[in-house]
Amino acid sequence: MDDEGDPGLLPPGLALVNVVLDELIGVTVVEIDEDAVARVLGPVDGGLYVFPSREGIANFLASGEPHSLAGRLDEFDAATEEPAYEADFARMLESDADDDAAAMLWMECLLVVDGCGVVDPSSVEDAMKQVEAVTTLREDFEPGYQDRDYWQDRDTLPVQITLPGGTGVTIVALDQFGERSPAFLGDQGEVALFHDPADLVTYIHAEGTDAMRAERYWPRNPPECEPRMTVDVRQADPGDLRSDAYVFLRALATVLTKREGDLSVHKMSKLTNERRMRRAVDTVAEVLREVNGRVTWR
Questions:
Q1: Are strands 166-172 and 135-137 parallel, antiparallel or unpaired?
Q2: Is residue 150 part of a domain?
Q3: Residues 141 and 179 reside in one and the same domain
Q4: Do 129 and 49 have their domain in common?
Q5: What is the DSSP letter of 176?
Q6: Domain extent for 179
Q7: Fewest CB atoms within 10 A around its CB: which of 5, 75, 105, 185?
Q8: Which pLDDT band holds residue 265 (cuts at 50, 70, 90)?
Q9: Of 3, 272, 271, 288, the residue nearest 123 (C-alpha)
Q10: What does pTM read for this prediction?
Q11: pLDDT in the model for residue 42
Q12: Residue 8 above 60 pLDDT?
């Protein structure tokens, strides 16, 4: 990709940079040296840390945790500095700005690209993906982090599910119901349920082959997995298609059986007489038995 907008045109020194990637937004520190080499705040062995706020950076620096800019930030007051640059890759992708404006925007993105060690990206999208692959969002130094619920505002939740065979806890991505991305913890075509939330925490922290681990919404390093939602799938009723029990049964059937079509809202919404309702009740019971026999207990 064209390197027009060389960071060497920017003055040397330390500065805060707002970073906007596809799935991550935060602020970090960049150092531009006299030779126009950009370095970013991150792990000692390479990569980038972004923080939700300047206070998070200040708390991180005060913690003494090793980082890539050790010894260079002793006099840098991250809590009071204003961001000097905008490495907004998302805007760059959508930009229809004139050449000068686009060049300036790309120049500021290059601070992060170069600082992360990304060499000759083929496009803005390629640069963004390579940067995002080595970026870690450090929420753990935000004010009040220790008192905040880890699962608040996340795309996944620990959910307690009750089936005829028992009750267990798993990780569920509710927004992925009906989508191609994995909605439940487990390998392809599997739903793993844990009798003990503590065992679920241990499982998540260990290496595994679950399809969900490759997704952006995978919950890395949760402190606990106590259920935030409880669903008794045994209560699924074709007369109440919006109930959690019915919605979860359909989602489980999508993963574990080939019967999800039998539970379609379109089909079940046509229960116009008692005979059709009895047949629907029998179908729900059959699918529930099939789902119950195919979950994986851990």
A1: unpaired
A2: no
A3: no
A4: yes
A5: G
A6: 157-297
A7: 75
A8: confident
A9: 3
A10: 0.58
A11: 97
A12: no
